[in-house]
Amino acid sequence: SFFFFPPSRGPCFMLVRYIQDSTWWDEHLSEENTRFLRKLVPEEYKAQTTSKLCPLKDEPWPREAWKPGTRRVGVIAIKLGMMPIWTKTGEKHAVTLLQVQDCHVIKYTPKEDYDGKSATLMVGGKNVSPFRVRVCFSEH
C-alpha cells in the first residue's frame, strides 16, 4: 500500500491489491497441453463465430408484443465513444456509439430456484478465451 500527503488536501491513501486469478487451466493442465490449447482456442472461437452454427446466424425470433408487467433482458455493449449528429432541421444532438457483440445467455435460474417471483438470466457480452475466465464464471 501507498500513503502520501498532497499539498492542498488532507492525507490520501492508495491501496494496491494484488489478485492472482486462478483458472481451471492453470491448475489442471501440463505446460505442453497449455501451449496446445492456447494455439487451438483462438482458431476454435473464430470458426464458431463465423460458422453457420453460430446463434447470430439464426433467423430472428418472433418478437412478442410488450404488455404491462413483462420483463426483457438488457443488452451488453462496448462504448465506442460519442459523436454529434444533426437533424434535417439543423439541430445538433450528441449520440453514444455502442458496439453490440455476441450477447448470449450464460446461466438461467428458474423462479422456483431464485425468489419464487421471477427468473434470472446471466448474460455474457462477448466471446472470451477460457484462459481468461475465472473459475466462478467457467462453472456456468
From TrEMBL:
The keyword Manganese does not apply. It comes from the Eukaryota. SUPFAM superfamilies: Translation proteins. GO terms for biological process: translation. InterPro entries: Ribosomal_uL3 (IPR000597), Ribosomal_uL3_bac/org-type (IPR019927), Transl_B-barrel_sf (IPR009000). GO terms for molecular function: structural constituent of ribosome. GO terms for cellular component: mitochondrial large ribosomal subunit. It holds the Pfam family Ribosomal_L3. Coiled coil: none annotated. Gene3D superfamilies: Translation factors (2.40.30.10). Keywords: Ribonucleoprotein, Ribosomal protein. Belongs to the universal ribosomal protein uL3 family. This is Large ribosomal subunit protein uL3m. It comes from Latimeria chalumnae.
